[in-house]
Amino acid sequence: MTKEIKNICCIGAGYVGGPTMAVIAEQCPFLEINVVDINENRISLWNDPDLTNLPIYEPGLKKIIKKCRGKNLHFSTELENNIRNADMIFISVNTPVKKTGIGAGQASDLKWIEACARQIAEHAIGHTIVIEKSTLPVKTALTIKDILGGSVNKDYQKKIGQKTFSILSNPEFLAEGTAINDLKNPDRVLIGGEDEIAVEALIKIYLNWVDRRKIFTTDLWSSELSKLIANAFLAQRISSINSVSAICESTGADVNDVALAVGMDKRIGPHFLNSGPGFGGSCFKKDILNLVYICDHYGLNEVSAYWQKVVEINDWQQKRISNIIVKNLYGTISGKKIGIFGFSFKANTNDTRESPSIKICKALLEEGANLYIYDPKVSANQIETDLDKKENKLELTTNNLEGTWSSSNTIDNTAKGADALVFLTDWKEFQHIDWSNIAKVMRSPSWVFDTRSICDLEKAKSFGINIWRIGFSAMI
Ligand code: UDX
Ligand code: ADP
Fold first, then answer.
1. Considering only CA atoms, which of 176, 352, 331, 319 is closest in space to residue 242?
2. From atom 20 of ligand 2, which residue's Cα is the shortest distance away?
3. Is the C-beta atom of 134 inside 6 A of ligand 2?
4. What are the pLDDT digits (tens) for 107-138?
5. b/e for 92-111, b at 16 or more Cβ within 10 A?
6. Is 362 in contact with 340 (CB distance < 8 Å)?
7. Domains observed in the chain
8. Which ligand number lies closest to the CA of residue 354?
9. pLDDT digits over 39-77, tens only?
10. What are the respective helix, strand and coil percentages of the chain, to the nearest 5?
11. Using a 6 Å cutoff on CB, does residue 234 contact ligand 1?
12. Cα–Cα distance, 128 to 357 (Å, whole number)
């Protein structure tokens, strides 16, 4: 027996909810999909008539929105009606780390999830399948079940008046920048839950474009935990290779060659071995801190210390990079102009959450530098929020007690008069910089710090620029 799904509601129109629903709408034109959010501004941007101001930048997304929006994909702030009409509700709201109180700095703040569950409990009618999509700490489903009036055991599906609910976990594995491809061609689709009818209903939706062999079903807890562990494993590889970058810089090996050689072993594999300024994004740090919190809760102190180190190495790598920049610029950057290339946490996204650029820029500002920040997709307003510092639109000041920053619209302006350029995001356009021109406009002795191994440093060097690259000391 299966439940027929006609109407889907997704709560949360962010980096997860937006692209995920766009792909489901495109693959399943017979489904009516309503994406709702409490943020009116975000919703009006999703509804931007000429699609130039979509709230998130994601390659391939605009095309799908153009095709489906207004047909079977709708964005609104209308929670009540859309919850009421839905056969299936995806929860895709944010779950940042708690800032205060018990578990502050580690546990996820579930207040948005809780608010969502309460809205669903109030407005849903009939039988509704509720799906956790956001990355959530293990056992969040318990909270949702409690609020929806269920209980922990298998027959939780009790009636509250006319309403019944089934809760599933269907974690999202998309990575920003490649979200559309990840959604269309997933490595796996994971569905956790006890209610077989609900599980089958969700499988049926995915079968419209995903091979059955890629759909893996588990119990709720295993599904929730798998998402945390997948992210923890990915982040752990990055911290491992970043720790190796420091060894390479000290000993004269090249981290890129080491990563290639190591990754050629089939048992290890080549992915997620790019050394850089540390991982950013909304998931990795939050998920590991969550894992640490869970381990501490269960008294697994060694396990918690093990995962905590992954985050510590990440913070250390960012600090290490800002120190290296200062050291190479004769120990002081006060009043010097430094061009920053890339502010998003990775290429092909405008998302800056936990971007390594934030910490590194803040450290350089503390040393009194004048930063010119160029990013192809991040707005000056966003940078201002992240740096918690007003943009300086005036001329450069020298001998700053405090640093300044301004946004820059072109690569040339970012480099003009600069003592150093720092590459922090792996945007493709940084591979094709015209170094002969850049060398002419920089102040000498000029420096390039490439934390992403993205630049043609041999070229830069041939025009007299001093170069530094992550995990490589031989060129200094
Ligand atoms: C991640 C997971 O990949 C995805 O499965 C999950 O659903 C959400 O979290 P995301 O954070 O969007 O996705 O991007 P990801 O590609 O994983 O990159 C995360 C960070 O690691 C970025 O800052 C990136 O630059 C960095 N990174 C990645 C490296 O430093 N080196 C690498 O080799 C890979
Ligand atoms: P993610 O990367 O997980 O998608 P985002 O912050 O990009 O995170 O998106 C989450 C969205 O969820 C935000 O746009 C936020 O306004 C929305 N949201 C949070 N709580 C609620 C709620 N109770 N009802 C509707 N939308 C919500």
1. 319
2. 112
3. yes
4. 777 788 888 999 999 999 999 999 998 777 77
5. bbbbebbeeeebeebbbbbe
6. no
7. 7-218 (3.40.50.720), 229-276+288-312 (1.10.1040.10), 321-469 (3.40.50.720)
8. 1
9. 999 999 999 999 999 999 999 999 999 999 999 999 999
10. 40, 15, 45
11. yes
12. 42
pLDDT at 108: 73
Is residue 18 in contact with ligand 2, taking CB distance under 6 Å? Answer: no
Q: Model pTM? A: 0.93
* 107 alpha carbon – ligand 1 mean position (Å): 21
Segment 397-422 shows an average pLDDT of 89
**Which tokens in the block code for residue 195?**
């209610």
Backbone φ and ψ for 363, nearest 5 degrees, come out as -65, -40
The residue type at 24: I
For the question of residue 28 being annotated catalytic, the response is: no
| DSSP states of 24-89 | HHHH-TTSEEEEE-S-HHHHHHHT-TTSS--SS--TTHHHHHHHHBTTTEEEES-HHHHHHH-SEE
Catalytic-residue membership of 68? no
Which residue has the CA at smallest separation from atom 11 of ligand 2?
A: 12
Three-state secondary-structure class, residue 185: coil
For atom 27 of ligand 1, the residue with the nearest CA is 279
- Atom number of ligand 1 nearest to Cα 174: 7
pLDDT (0 to 100) of residue 104:
80
The SS3 assignment for 189 reads strand
User: Is residue 462 scored above 90 in pLDDT?
Assistant: yes
Question: Encoding tokens for residue 266?
Answer: 């089939």
Query: Alpha helix (H) ranges present in 71-178?
Result: 79-85, 111-123, 140-147
Indicate the average pLDDT of the chain: 93
* Phi, psi (rounded to 5 degrees) for 3: -95, 130
pLDDT at 400: 59
